[in-house]
Amino acid sequence: MSQSISDIKLVKFYYRHYKLGPQDFCREYGGNVDGLNKFLTGNYDSLAARDALRAFWERFNTNQLMKSQAGDDFDDDDDEFNSTFGGDSMLSPIKGSGLTSPMSSSSGSTNTTNSGQITGNRSFSSLAEATANNTNNGKPESKRVRNLLKTYYGPGIGEGSDSSSMNDPLNIDGPSFNLNNYFDSIVRTSTLNQLIQKDNQMVSEIRTLDGDMKTLVYDNYTKFINATDIIKKMKTNVENMEEGMALLSKNMDLITNCSEKINSTLSVRRDRIDQLSGLQKLLQKLQFLTALPSSLNHCLAMQAYNQAVRYYNSNSGILKQYSHIPSFQNIQNECDSIMKTMKDKLYERLSSLSTSQTDCVESAEVLMDLLEPVELVRSKYLESRKHHTITLLENLEKKSVEHITDYIKELNANFLSEYSYNITSYKSLFINRLDGSDSKKERQHSLLQLEEFSKDLFNKYLNIAKSKLSSFKDPIEKIIALEIINSDVSKLGSELSSHEKITNIINSTVHDQIDFYFDNLQKTIKEHIYQLNTTLNEKRDEVLEGHTLQELSDATSKAIINDIILLFANLKPFFLPTETQFLSSYQDTIFTKIQVKLQQFFLFLVNIHFLEYLDIIATTPNREQFSGRFLLVLSSICLYIENKGITLVVQLMSEFITVAKQGSKKELNVFSFNAPDLCKRIRETGLQILNVFTRLSSQKLDKILKKGLESVPNWLVLKEPRDVRPVIDIYLEEILKFQNEISKLLPVVNHLHSVKSHSRTGSGNGTNTGVNTSNNTPDSHRRNPSSNTNTTLFEKKVDHVDYNTLSVLIAIVKLSLKSFNESLRLKTFGTNGCHQIQIDLHYLKLSLYDMFGSNSFDNLLQECETTVTERCIDPLPLAKSIVTKICETKINKKKNNENENQ
Amino acid sequence: MFNTNTSNISTNVYGLSQKTRALSHITAEADVNRFLVGTTALREENEIALLEAKEGEGVRCISIFPHPKEIHSITSCPFDASLFFSVYNTSGGGSNNSNNDNNNTNNDFKSSLWRINESMDSIDELFELKGHTGTIKPIICDPSGSNNFIISLDDSNIRLWSKIDDQNEPTVVKQFGNLSKLSVGSINPNISNQLATANDVNIKGWDFRNAKETFSMDKAHSEQIRDIDFNPNKPYYLLSAGDDCKLKIWDTRQTKDPVKIFSGHNHWIWSAKFNRYHDQLIITSSSDNTVKLWNLYSLSSAVNSENNISNSNEQQSPNEQQQQTQQPIKQKKNKRNEDQLIKTYEEHEDSVYNISWSSSNFLFASLSYDGRFVVNNVPKEYSDILSYI
């Protein structure tokens, strides 16, 4: 039960009932003040304090009990009872209450008040209950005990509180039962039957009571017998034990004697042994200390730096402590110098190129152990690693590359392993080991340095990879190489912000590659065209034979188209599914880039590239380098591209886009590709080139006519014209040459009659028309000298050249006639000169109609005629018959010539 | 009867009744834009019209003077507005018919100095520049405006004439050249005594006081050169244009290649002129019936003076300054800094043989063969911005 008094309760009890300080308490009950204070604040370790508290508790309870009993005593004036009871209850209040009950009951019959005593007594178990409360407010616990006793000892016992029923003399079970009274009352109050019944009842009750008593007696008897048996057994056993005990005590005595003997003999030397063993230890230490330099040297020689540091560090304290002793000082100095050389060596090793990674890490570690400044070691370490890695990279960079994938593999194997090792070792060396108070700052610093270091190296690595990649043009290999880089680097983990860089390198490589394709395409196209020009220049007029010119043009066009096809073939690998799909995240940007490039390319091709030749030609002083023919071929190439090339390209592009879409996982932003617009543009470009060609060609014709005009020294004085000037024939021949050349490349439209055939078959017709128009025109022009509207119409038409031989030729001739008109305006003619020109013009008109079957030049010729009459001092009309006659003879003569030639 | 056209209709076109080739801006009149236009009619009566163009009011004819023979070129004297040279062809025409058979020895072309008399109704010939053979090219006066000398060209020779005054006939100081097919010349206003001439496809530079050749550009064009003009503000730049329809700009220090080529005309370029003040502006006229205005910013003096914008801004009137600061200059800056064709003028319906800037900075006149005289302005976005450079 005493265990059940918890420590908390003890403490509570103390606080409630002890009025003085802890010092007084300790003085009274023992235990020290500290222990008690601790105990009071909840630390229940101190046994002394607990014992003291418990003692206080017991004493208090006892005092309480004694006080209450003393109070009772004063009421009862029964000293004897009080003393016996008080002594009894000194044992333990609860036990006491448990034990006193039967005792009090046994003596209870003598004193009626003792039951109240008991209840008062019992109430002490609640410790702090008021003592005056000796009536029916006992705890359920005490009630239970009382019932127990009641069943055992029968009713009437312990029911002291029920004083009314107890003091009833008629109650047969009550203690104050009075037989006579009972009998009298029964006899008096009961009928006979009732009496008889009562008698019967009582007889049977008596019988059962009697039986009960008998069984009780038997029970007690058997118990008693058992007890005697057990006592008998105990007696015998104790007798045996006594012998063993005697033996034991004897042996014990022996042992005591021996130990006393040993003790006494050894006691003399014990101190000395202690002294000696201490000395030996000291000597060993000293020996180690003296041997320290040599062992350090040994370690140094063995390169067992770790061990050396361990020796040194474990002993440096002692050495420092005894440094006032010279010999120790010497040792320390020696050690220090050795350690210094070691440090130097370590630093050397750290910064040496040949040091392996592990050695390097070890060196750094040892140096740190030697309490070298972290920053120094760190910077040295980083420096050396950097140097090392850079030389590694440099070596790799110098290496000639045969296969980019192999190279990248090698590069990755060398660099990345080194790189990652460096980083992990650095982390273990400088970042994870720090534990000082300033470690946070230091760590940050270390991390910063590491980042810088790694960034630098990684950039170098990427640059090398990039430069090597850029020297390779095979897309598939390149992509594989990129994939390797991507996967290898991603293995390194995201510890570094290198992912971005990888993205960069991939992007830039891919973009470089795309740029390269497009640049290359432009270059090759340029080459094709230059080649075309050189062939044209080399072969000169040979190309006019057969279909050479056409073939040449087609070949160049096809070459250009093939280049574009090749471009798409080259671009496809970017979108073919790769193993890791690493490109897929970039595919949308790549695709956009390609599309932009494509657009640019077509713009380049269409708008710039071909037109560039015009500029080149314009700026080239050496006119022979680019002939007009070259321009013609160029424009025919434009035509080819427009007709066949663009559709092919568009088809290829849509194929490409589908491939790209399949390959890519992301949504691709497809630009709309305006093929008709492209066609239109290239057509315009071609036409522009054709225009320049037209102008160039017309200049040739210009010159012929101009020379013809200038070959006559004075147009004022001239003989009467007899024939068309030969220059007109030359002019016509030149036109034929142009026609021949142009018709090789540009489509011939029906309107254009082949000159030779037509001149034979349809000359009559042509002549007639010519005559008819010539009938009208001279007169009308004389009437209306300024025909401005016609000229304007002409000029607007000049710009409009189309892709056919007729249109180009007409444009050429028109331009040359325009120039002729200009030349005429600068001259002054006499009558004959004017007539000569009129005849020439008429012949021209007939011949041109013959050639082209159209009157498109009539206006211009008319213009010329107007000019010449204007510029004539004395314009006399020329008889039409003369004009016709001269022209017809001329034509016939020409025909005959041709026939003869054939 | 000719004065019917002088009615005050605000138009930038004036029509002459005859064919015309000759046009000269009267440079001596700095305040008004006056031009002399000469007709080129072989058989009819020829005349010289004195035209005035006012901005916002169009062109009006001040006076018309009869001129004997067809006029091939007019050069107004820069030192006297009433004096001008004309080059004329005496071979045709009704009055001198008798000369036809006799004077066929290449001296049909004559050049004379004329004075417009004070009543502004006729002209008097002061003297003739004699001794030319073949076609006489436009007379060249001193661009600085002095009357110290003039230069004349015929088909083969360059003549430097002495001081011009009313009384004495000038004499030939120097005669040199001996080239073939001389066509046009230009005096460099920035380098004294420097003359450039074009003969056929070649350009030559001369020191005309010493009659020495200073530079030459052989085969400057693929066809005949019809006009050359020195940049009025930058000493070494020369333009040339001709029958190859190209306008080329040359640096006379590096004559191998042109520094700039413009092409755009569809037929021969007959005349090409730098703007006197804003030399990035060039006008060309062509027998494709158009006049084109070019912007040659990169080689102009505007590039150098760009730094002085702020200075010149301060000099301007406050009104103008306010206007310009309001304008988004930057946007237009790019455009006008590009060397490109600014505009094609298509008012003419026949070959435009002559063209001239006027006293107003941005006004120019062009003359086509059919007698149409047109005055045009540089587009506003160029003239506005350029006005403060």
From TrEMBL, chain A:
UniProt keyword Transmembrane, yes or no: no
Keyword Lipid biosynthesis attributed: no
Subcellular location(s) per record: Golgi apparatus, trans-Golgi network
Acidic residues bias locations: 72-81
Keyword tags: Coiled coil, Golgi apparatus, Lipid transport, Protein transport, Transport
Biased composition (Low complexity): 96-121, 766-777
Biological process according to GO: endocytic recycling; Golgi organization; Golgi vesicle transport; lipid transport; lysosomal transport; protein transport; retrograde transport, endosome to Golgi
UniProt region (Disordered), positions on chain: 68-121, 756-791
InterPro entries from the UniProt entry: Cullin_repeat-like_dom_sf, Vps51
Coiled coil: none
SUPFAM superfamilies linked: Cullin repeat-like (SSF74788)
Any one of the GO CC terms: GARP complex
Family statement: Belongs to the VPS51 family.
Protein task: Acts as component of the GARP complex that is involved in retrograde transport from early and late endosomes to the trans-Golgi network (TGN).
Oligomer and partners: Component of the Golgi-associated retrograde protein (GARP) complex.
Record-given protein name: Vacuolar protein sorting-associated protein 51 homolog
Origin species: Dictyostelium firmibasis
Upper classification of the organism: Eukaryota, Amoebozoa, Evosea, Eumycetozoa, Dictyostelia
UniProtKB/TrEMBL annotation, chain B:
Keyword S-adenosyl-L-methionine (UniProt): no
Region (Disordered): 307-337
Ranges where the EIPR1-like beta-propeller domain occurs: 11-294
GO biological process assignments: protein ubiquitination
Family to which this protein belongs: Belongs to the WD repeat EIPR1 family.
PANTHER family, per the entry: EARP AND GARP COMPLEX-INTERACTING PROTEIN 1 (PTHR14205:SF15), WD-REPEAT PROTEIN (PTHR14205)
Compositional bias segments (type: Low complexity): 307-329
Listed name of the protein: EIPR1-like beta-propeller domain-containing protein
Record-linked Pfam families: Beta-prop_EIPR1, WD40
Organism: Dictyostelium firmibasis
Keyword Lipid biosynthesis among record annotations: no
WD-type repeats, residues: 218-260, 262-304
UniProt keyword terms in alphabetical order: Repeat, WD repeat
InterPro entries linked to this entry: Beta-prop_EIPR1-like, EIPR1, Quinoprotein_ADH-like_sf, WD40/YVTN_repeat-like_dom_sf, WD40_repeat_CS, WD40_rpt
